[in-house]
Amino acid sequence: MNASFAQCKGLGMAAGYGPAFNNSVLSHAGSHPQSSGLSPGDKRESARNLMLKSRAQQVLILLVESAKKDGKLQINYQEPPEPQVKVDVTSLDAVRYNSSLNGQEIGGCADNSCPVTVVELTEFTQPYSAQAYATQKRVLDAHKGKIRWVARQLPSDYQPLSKTLAIAALCAQKQGRYWYFADALFAHQATLKKDAINTYAAEAGLNINDFTACVSAPKEFDNLLTEQIEGVHRMGVYSTPTYIINGKKISGMVPFESLDKAILEALANKR
After folding, report:
1. How far apart, in Å, are the Cα atoms of 181 and each of 37, 131, 190, 211, 253?
2. pTM for the whole thing?
3. CB 181 within 8 A of CB 206
4. Separation of alpha carbons 113 and 257, rounded Å
5. Which of 55, 61, 162, 195 could form a disulfide with 155 if both were Cys (CB 3.0 to 4.6 A apart)?
């Protein structure tokens, strides 16, 4: 939408902003209570500024309305880029490089040498997280040797078992068998019970004595979990599953095709 000075002037006059209006504004603004104490020159300047501001606002409104009528209004708006999210991966995080349960030890890249790092926020009682776990395996198979996949827990406040399972998963990671434990939990998701946690741990091949001791005295991992939850909340993440792919956040249960596209874009940006 382009408007010439003549058009603006014409619209201003059409709205009644002619000499009579100017004189009226000058007269009223000069006697306004806020003008008391001002010199005559300052009063005139204050009134002039008020007049110009009022006129500009009304002319803009008329220009927009005129352009709407003529079908010439086009508003260009570019969505601001999603802010980058920084996640520091630590030795306490569960990491895999391929879809095998022993994927921590096998892969074409390791640690920071991987061109793509995916941090997934997950929760064991949430059905969408179970679906995301299956999708995760497909993505790792499709991009072998190029991805470091990191799992972090984001327990739900609405599921009493959620935090207990999150701490149990950290205890499993302490033995280097997080993915085996996660596999067992998602396999039993429909019937998860607190008194069956040791059964899931046994399926995952964990040392039950060490696991039980860890779960029974969870202070270390309770504090870690609290720190991690606070950290992801600062990133604006409150739901699972959520993916952070090379700093780009993707929320919700997204299909394989969408994740695959996001990873291809991340790989292209690394070249």
Report:
1. 78, 16, 16, 11, 22
2. 0.69
3. yes
4. 25
5. 162
